[in-house]
Amino acid sequence: MPAPTLADPTPGVRAGHVRWLVPLGLGLALALLTVAVVTHSWVTRLDAQIEGGLPRHGTWPVLDRLATVVTTVAQPAANVAVAFAVAVFVAARTRAWRSLVAPVAALGLLTATVLLGKVLISRPGPPGSETDTGLGYFPSGHTTSALVCVGVVALSVAALRPRWHRRALVLIGAWTLLVGWGLVWKHFHWVSDVVAGILLGTLILWLTFARQGLPSRASPSIGPSSSE
Question: At 179, which helix (H) or strand (E)?
Fold first, then answer.
């Protein structure tokens, strides 16, 4: 049985098309969104309308507390550390140290691209969210790290339990959407910051995991299966 991948593409020509079209589509969507934000187009106007229509803090205390918990748990630095630790544990458990290539690449790209975007674009956050870090809010680092770090953890654990692969993908999506909602609900980020984080995080996971098999106990090696 071939080891699971992020893409799980169908065999043949369609698989090659998927491997190219998905990252190209994600990259193009992210580029267009970035241009729309930088040029203060309808995207930023829509951001302002959505932010202005959200309830103020204290209107829905239960949802406020849930959003606070979610955004606190989704701290990027802690998430990166946990994801790396899990990846190392899986590599040691499966005795396939090459399996660390994808997680390390994903976490490295996460850090580099988010910081680069924040420095170059330097977008201010919603009213009341500004901090003195000197970094912008686009893309959302919390959203990107939530997607990438949970992705690294879920896909690494799926290496030990291949049948959990589809559940891992569902977990990645559900947690990312929850974090994105919490950031917008708390007025920490614009909606387009969150959307950019989702696009960037998905692109990072695809580039680092889609072409690599994740090792399992029965299949400790990484690379093409014997049937290919």
Answer: helix 165-185
Angstrom distance (rounded) from CA 218 to CA 209? 19
pTM higher than 0.85, yes or no?
A: no
DSSP summary character for residue 59: S
Is-contact 211 157, C-beta < 8 A?
no
Domain locations in the chain? 14-52+72-209
Q: Which two tokens stand for residue 228?
A: 């290919």
Q: Which two tokens stand for residue 94?
A: 């499966």
User: Which amino acid, 92?
Assistant: A
Dist CA 143 CA 170 (whole Å): 16
- Residues 138, 140, 141: CA angle, nearest 5 degrees: 115
Measured between alpha carbons, how far is residue 155 from residues 6, 39, 81, 172, 174 in Å?
Answer: 7, 37, 16, 9, 15
> Rounded to an integer, what distance in angstroms lies between the CA atom of residue 183 and that of residue 206?
24
- Which residue, 106, 116, 103, is CA-closest to 30? 116
Summarize pLDDT for 43-65 with one digit per residue, the tens. 999 999 999 999 887 788 999 99
CB of 5 closer than 8 Å to CB of 210: yes
The residue among 147, 171, 148 whose CA lies nearest residue 158 is 171
Are 135 and 119 in contact, with CB atoms under 8 Å apart? Answer: yes
8 A C-beta contact, residue 128 and residue 56: no
E strands in 35-80: none
Q: 3-12, 117-126, 166-175 — which is least confidently predicted?
A: 3-12
Residue 160 has what pLDDT? 81
Q: How confident is the model at residue 104 (pLDDT cuts 50, 70, 90)?
A: very high
